[in-house]
Design brief:
Blueprint: H1 4-10, E1 16-20, E2 23-24, E3 30-34, E4 37-42, E5 49-57, E6 62-71, H2 98-114, E7 123-124, E8 139-147, E9 150-156, E10 163-165, H3 174-190, E11 204-212, E12 217-224, H4 229-242, E13 246-253, E14 265-268, E15 275-279, E16 282-286, H5 296-310, E17 317-321, H6 327-332, E18 338-343, H7 346-358, E19 364-368, H8 371-380, E20 387-390, H9 399-407, E21 412-417, H10 420-432, E22 435-443, E23 453-460
Parallel strand pairs: 4-6, 7-22, 12-13, 17-18, 17-20, 18-19, 20-21
Antiparallel strand pairs: 1-5, 2-3, 3-4, 5-6, 8-9, 8-11, 9-10, 11-12, 13-14, 15-16, 21-23, 22-23
Helix pairs in contact: 2-10, 3-4, 8-9
Length: 474
């Protein structure tokens, strides 16, 4: 048997190997094993034999890119929408037929639920597809790199700080790509200094583009290392001349050295400071830093599923935890007596209140603070809650939040999640607090990527409370 040192030497960067791919991991990489080394192959599909080049070999992970597919999977597209899929981490499933993507994502959710015995009878429904498998992303946060004579606007390459120009990205709304192209041209013509993170010289760091599909308008935010009126003013003028649909231009100053994109201050170049877009019949204000879903159709599928499963009669009190800018709360308002939204970010609460006023909705109130504390206060006040909606970030809910939500005793809980892993963990905990998971509706918010959103319906059990169980090892 060869030593681990010898096996490690065989995975040297640049080496070309023929590999048999067995499955996809949760990030969409094809998995193969060579000798004793597990290799994650970008752009490879299960059942394929590929010739691959090692691109990175670290302590824990080894990555490779496909050089040639020697044996095709029947799920492979002969002509994918983009030829950069094997090098771009933005859309690792773009070579896979869309039907196969949906089936794989359903399997991802089923696998997460099977790890907990108490969840194995939960119905996993077919994934709701996105009406637009490409061209759906209405928000893009792009890195600006290079020199002003040859600027690059795109995303970081895998395992590096090099920026890959993604040009006409098929996932982006066409307006996003037009704005990015015009900004590159404007940088060249205006000789705008591009920020260099190593030397900390230059001005322009990032480009954030947001699109209102309803209005057909766009917003561009230039993130700079310092306040620089002249360069940004001329760049904005060039952009609006080239792309008249750009209605809002802002400069955001971020002088930090970390990887956070937006700083704390916005300076508007245009008179207009926000866009308006709609999900269903609900209008939302889009400002440079406000949260808004990147796929309107997918968001509508989620909100409509929540509304259908809520089965409101007009008499209920609803609590929307992690409410963000009020999307779900405002969707439920017409069917409820009262909706209370909780959110830790004060700016999001301000946006939620503005969105409620813009839609003439008066039975919603929003409060900023710690979710667990706010739910515990609600219980201490003896308030009756009929429905709790949980919509946490990817890390899921703290156990204290789940316990506090269950302690309110709502007949129904609805959990909206962007991570099957943390969803299954939290549904298992909620089973221990008296709630049975009935069904899960996966929604494909992000076609061509491994991400899948889920809406879970839970009802209060009438039997003795079951204890949460530990996750089984795969």
């Amino acid at each position: 048997m060869e030593s681990s040192k010898t096996a490690k030497r065989k995975a040297v960067v640049g080496r070309i190997l023929d590999l048999s791919v067995t499955t996809l991991d949760e990030e969409g990489f094809g998995l193969a094993v060579h000798e004793t080394t597990r290799i994650r192959v970008a752009g490879a599909l299960p059942g394929e034999t590929v010739r691959a080049r090692i691109t990175f070999s670290g302590q824990r992970d080894t990555f490779a890119d496909v050089v040639k597919v020697l044996r095709n999977s029947p799920d492979r597209l002969l002509t994918p929408p983009c030829g950069k899929g094997d090098a771009c981490d933005g859309c690792p499933l773009i070579s896979m037929k869309y039907r196969a993507q949906l089936e794989w994502k359903k399997g991802l959710v089923e696998g997460a639920m099977r790890r907990y015995p108490v969840l194995r009878d939960t119905e996993i429904m077919p994934v709701i597809p996105s009406p637009k498998p490409v061209g759906y992303r209405t928000t893009a946060k792009l890195v600006v790199s290079g020199k002003f004579a040859a600027p690059v606007i795109g995303i970081y390459r895998r395992n590096s700080h090099d920026v890959m120009d993604i040009g006409d990205c098929p996932l982006h709304h066409p307006l996003v790509n037009r704005v990015a192209a015009a900004v590159k041209d404007g940088i060249r013509k205006g000789k705008v200094p591009v920020y260099n993170p190593r030397t900390r010289n230059g001005i322009l760091r990032y480009l954030v583009v947001r699109v209102s599909e309803r209005e057909g308008k766009a917003m561009a935010v230039f993130v700079t290392s310092q306040r620089s009126f002249n360069e940004i003013h001329h760049l904005a003028k060039h952009l609006q001349t080239s792309v008249p649909e750009v209605e809002v231009v802002a400069q955001n100053v971020n002088s930090s050295t970390g990887n956070v994109i937006l700083g704390d201050r916005d300076y508007f170049v245009t008179r207009e400071q926000s866009l308006t877009d709609c999900i269903g019949d609900v209008r939302f204000t889009i400002s440079p830093r406000s949260f808004f879903q990147v796929n309107n159709d997918g968001a509508r599928s989620i909100y409509e599923t929540v509304r259908e499963w809520a089965s409101l009669t007009g008499k209920e009190t609803v609590t929307d935890v992690y409410c963000g800018v009020g999307g779900i709360a405002l969707f439920l308002a017409a069917g409820a007596a009262k909706v209370i939204g909780y959110e830790s970010i004060e700016a999001a609460v301000d946006d939620a209140e503005k969105n409620a006023r813009a839609n003439g909705i008066r039975n919603c109130r929003f409060e900023a603070g710690d979710a667990a504390e706010l739910l515990e206060d609600l219980r201490d006040e003896g308030k009756k809650v009929d429905l709790v909606v949980l919509n946490p970030p990817r890390k899921g809910c703290d156990e204290r939040v789940l316990r506090a939500a269950a302690a309110l005793g709502p007949a129904t809980l609805i959990y909206v999640s962007c991570s099957p892993e943390t969803l299954s963990r939290d549904l298992n905990l909620l089973a221990g607090f008296g709630y049975r998971s009935v069904k899960i509706q996966p929604v494909d918010m992000f076609p061509q990527t491994p991400h899948v959103e889920n809406v879970a319906l839970l009802v209060r059990k009438q039997t003795d409370v079951e204890k949460p169980v530990e996750r089984r090892k795969p």
